[in-house]
Each structure stands twice: as structure tokens, then as C-alpha cells.
Amino acid sequence: MRAETITKYYYTFEELSKDRQELEIEKIRNDEYYLDYEWYEGIEEDFKTILELLGFYDIETYFSGFYSQGDGASFEARWDREKYLTRKIKDYAPKDEELYSIAKELQGFAVGEEGIVERTQHTNYYHSNTMTAEIGEGYNKIANNHFTALCRDLADWYYSRLDEQYEYLMSDEAIVEHMIANEYEFEGK
Fold first, then answer.
1. Distant-in-sequence, close-in-space partners of 120: CB < 8 Å, separation ≥ 6
2. DSSP string, 29-96
3. Cβ neighbours of residue 103 under 8 Å, at least 6 residues apart?
4. 185: exposed, middle or buried (C-beta count within 10 Å: 0-12, 13-18, 19+)?
5. Domains of the chain: which residue ranges?
6. What radius of gyration do the chain's Cα atoms show?
7. Which residues pair with 115 in a beta bridge?
8. 25 in the Ramachandran plot: left (φ > 0), alpha (ψ -120 to 50) or beta?
9. Which of 26, 71, 82, 126 has the smallest C-beta neighbourhood within 10 Å, fewest atoms?
10. Cβ(76)–Cβ(118) below 8 Å
11. Is 95:61 a contact under the CB 8 Å cutoff?
């Protein structure tokens, strides 16, 4: 008796039919290992740099996302008005008017003031409303509320960047780029 050899053919993503391409894109999108790396690191480092330019230090960032109640971003830090580098923000992110607007508001606090930003709830929620902040002594509740609002605006700014990147990584375009760059091969067309 003679053994038959079965030859398997493998195809690149581009060689697949349109229906099969759509199927493979969905498989990757739903694969728990697709984003099983620190895809957010660049955004996190950028955000920490921005916070440092604004005078924050001892920074810890947190986020959860992206389609559940309680998703968002927050941070804990100390703040020193002396460390604030106003023009550096404009140089660092020249086209980001939202960020520059927040920076200008922070500049309004007196030189020499210090503040602290804390998360008030240590749960699975990381959105900006879990944060409180206090500016130095001598400021009234209105000033503390304003400082808290600015810190929350920064956290929301950070989360929107994370969300944009996540949405891109989950897009058909990014998944196709991923499969092509990693030279995926598929059995059958």
C-alpha cells in the first residue's frame, strides 16, 4: 500500500478572497493575544513628560478601557509651581490647543505654590472623577476645585489619546498592517 502525501498550500493575506480577509481580520480583532503587549507605553511616557513640563512630579498614571462604565484615566502626583515650564509645552505640543489651554490655566496659580493630586477611590475605576487635588494653603475651596478640574482635564486629555490609539489598533487597517508586517500565512483561500 502506498502512502499518499498531502500537500498544504499557504497564502499571504493579500492572496486571500475578500470574504476570507474579512474573516481573518475579525479573528485577529477578537484574539486575546493581539494587543497582549504594552501598546500604550509611548502615550503614557508622552503624558508623563507633559505633566513634568507642567510642574508635576512623583507621577503614577492609571487607565482602564475602552467600552465599560468606569473606563477612563487618572493620575496621582505632586505639583510644584516652581517647576512649571510654560513655553516648553507650546514647544513640545505646538498644535494641541486643548493641552495649551489647560497649561495656561495652571500658570495662573502663584509661583511657589505646591499641590497634590490623588485618586479618591482605589477600585477598578480609573476615570478622572476618581481624582481630587489640593493646591497650597491659603487657597479657598473655589481655587482647589479649579485645580482639581484642571487635573481632571489633563486625565481626560490622556484618556482621549489612549482611546484614539486603541481605536486605531482595532481598525481593519491596523490589523491588516499587523498581519502583513508579521508575514502571516493562511491555509486555503
1. 130, 131, 132
2. HT-TTTT-S-TTHHHHHHHHHHHHHTTEEEEEEEEE-SSSTT-EEEEEEEEEGGG--HHHHHHHSTT-
3. 54, 86, 89, 90
4. exposed
5. 38-174
6. 23
7. 79, 135
8. alpha
9. 82
10. yes
11. no
CB 112 within 8 A of CB 82: yes
- From 52, 58, 64, 75, select the one nearest 128 (Cα to Cα): 75
Measured CA to CA, the distance from residue 79 to residue 114 in angstroms comes to 5
Cell of 109: 496659580
What pLDDT digit, counting tens, does each position of 5-50 carry?
555 678 888 888 899 999 999 999 998 888 888 999 999 999 999 9
Whats the size of the chain, residue-wise?
189
**Which of these, 124, 123, 93, 89, lies nearest to 106 by C-alpha position?**
89
Give per-residue pLDDT as tens, 124-159.
Answer: 677 888 888 888 766 678 888 888 999 999 999 999
Residue 2 sits at φ, ψ, to 5 deg, of: -100, 130
Peptide bond into 66 cis (omega under 30): yes
Q: How far is CA 23 from CA 20, 95, 105, 175, 186, in A?
A: 5, 39, 49, 12, 12
